[in-house]
């Protein structure tokens, strides 16, 4: 099993002097897509500081305005034009824009991490690009190519590098948006689309920090239905769960677990993350059958667990099974991996084992792959590194323990 990661590298030595020499100049604060991947002496420069002046020890999951954002536009039946970095700021929209009137919009989420050696790591942005393309097809939208998506994320991370927290303090959350910005009155696809990427430094998603979550199973509200858009990251999937979340938080819960809308007994997902349960030596997670988002972290955990010798089942999971599990955890870009301490359903509260066992192994593996993957670099490029990582070696490096003997599925 191989996983491919795109990593934003430190500025090459030959260009570092060029950047530093420009610090005394104000310069225009705009770079083209080409400029961010191959800076030239004639092209404008941006601010170069190691860190922004904020309290890195108290980052929550809130919006902090950074320096730059990326934008690109696409007319009907055309491809996206070359994008551009510009100052972070408001976006002007027609009141008849498709996204405002008919909710024609998608978003993604990925993160940039700072390693101990100063390198900046992006976690599988190509997978976000593919998922956005799938969502765009479902929502009748034009979408950027995988290459343009990854380049845009890389440029945004590189331009806002001073906002990437120090190692262990958090990450730079990167939010790509695809929205219908063209004016349209009748119900039909927008005549114009905008691809936009912005970023914000963040800490833990939940207010509990790294403490186990307390979840509430809601059988009144449903996140998605068969035939709907629950399987893609449409902006229309999120506002409908706000009422359920608000009610749950008023009662002291961290988040809500939703059940299927037909039988009201099969677990789907939480408001912003996928669900996993552990019973014995088997890991189970609800199958993505059109109502559940195929999370990038979810996919990574499944790959890592299987390659480490664990049995992983993607299937229908009943709420009764959830209440009888040994361990429960959630995964998502925003939450990474979060342990669940308890789940309440129909007035009954079930507490789960936390602090040791499988979840710790998987968390160490995922963090090891994100932050220590540079030790397994195989191909170098000017500003980025493409790496392939063997999970077995990472497990040994991080935990000191070999995975269970099993025929390696490496290719």
From TrEMBL:
A family per Pfam: Aminotran_4
Gene Ontology terms: biological process: amino acid biosynthetic process; branched-chain amino acid biosynthetic process
Domain of life where this protein originates: Eukaryota
Known catalytic reactions: L-isoleucine + 2-oxoglutarate = (S)-3-methyl-2-oxopentanoate + L-glutamate; L-leucine + 2-oxoglutarate = 4-methyl-2-oxopentanoate + L-glutamate; L-valine + 2-oxoglutarate = 3-methyl-2-oxobutanoate + L-glutamate
InterPro entries the UniProt entry points to: Aminotrans_IV, Aminotrans_IV_CS, Aminotransferase-like, B_amino_transII, BCAT-like_C, BCAT-like_N, BCAT_family
EC assignment: 2.6.1.42
Essential cofactor(s): pyridoxal 5'-phosphate
Record keywords: Amino-acid biosynthesis, Aminotransferase, Branched-chain amino acid biosynthesis, Pyridoxal phosphate, Transferase
PROSITE patterns xrefs: AA_TRANSFER_CLASS_4
UniProt cross-references to Gene3D superfamilies, sorted A to Z: 3.30.470.10, D-amino Acid Aminotransferase, subunit A, domain 2
GO molecular function term, any single one: branched-chain-amino-acid transaminase activity
Coiled coil: none
UniProt xrefs under PANTHER family: AMINO ACID AMINOTRANSFERASE (PTHR42825), BRANCHED-CHAIN-AMINO-ACID AMINOTRANSFERASE (PTHR42825:SF29)
Similarity section: Belongs to the class-IV pyridoxal-phosphate-dependent aminotransferase family.
Protein name: Branched-chain-amino-acid aminotransferase
Lineage start: Eukaryota, Viridiplantae, Streptophyta, Embryophyta, Tracheophyta
